[in-house]
Amino acid sequence: MANLRKILLVDDEEDLREALSEQLVMTEDFDVFEAGNGSEALEKAKEQIYDLVIL
């Protein structure tokens, strides 16, 4: 698992977020981080750099 792409997945619907996250992780190309709202997403974005943010 070298050089995984980091994705921040932001959605207030937990079931949708989890389903999409599971599918992305299964490819073994992505490391997925989740946020349930905009405030949480901003905090996570301040902590590290993501290759992609899905809103």
Write the element-wise H/E pattern from the N-terminal end onward: EHEHE
pLDDT under 50 segments (min length 5)? none
Main sheet summary: 3 strands, parallel
Q: Write out the strand line-up for the largest beta sheet, numbering strands in chain order.
A: 2-1-3
Number of helices: 2
Residues in helices, as a percent range = 40-55%
Structural class: alpha/beta
Q: Into which percentage range does the β-strand content fall?
A: 25-35%
Q: Could you characterize what this model shows?
A:
The chain has 55 residues and is α/β, with parallel strands linked by helices. The chain has a domain at 13-48. 42% of the residues lie in helices and 27% in strands. The protein is flat, with a radius of gyration of 11 Å. The model has no long low-confidence stretch (mean pLDDT 94).
TL;DR?
With 55 residues, the protein is of the alpha/beta class. The chain has helices at residues 14-26, 38-47; strands at residues 5-10, 30-35, 52-54.
Key terms for this structure?
27% strand; alpha/beta; three-stranded parallel sheet; 55 residues
Note the topology.
Layout: E1 5-10, H1 14-26, E2 30-35, H2 38-47, E3 52-54
Parallel strand pairs: 1-2, 1-3
